[in-house]
Amino acid sequence: MNHSRELDGIDAAWLVVDAQGQAAIFTTGGEGPVPETAFASVAIAEESVQSFPEISGYELLTSVARPDDFVAFAKRGLFAYDWSDTHRVAGKQLGGYELQAQPTSPLLVSELPASAQSLANATQLSGLVFGSNVVMLGT
Question: Does some domain include residue 73?
Fold first, then answer.
């Protein structure tokens, strides 16, 4: 796991797949770690996902001021995680990506457009099933 200095302060997004083949998008809040395997998806993940059709209902699991992006990701069938420690006071940080919104009809990586499939498949979290509240990544 690595957090590229080039991403410091930039709220970047990256695609990932879980043990069941479900797709998710993680946003860094400008601070969260990014696996080296995900660097290729950082530049285009969020823009690419916004072009997906809305295919799902969603459940919003957070109370942030502007949940629009998380809702938009979930409506497109993706679990939406964010490095929310950016907004927490010292000593109360989670040290992980927190689930913000989840789709009622999750997309499998095999249902993504071909270009997004390859980006998501580059980073597989084979020990996890999305829907967990917090995903811890090594730094």
Answer: yes
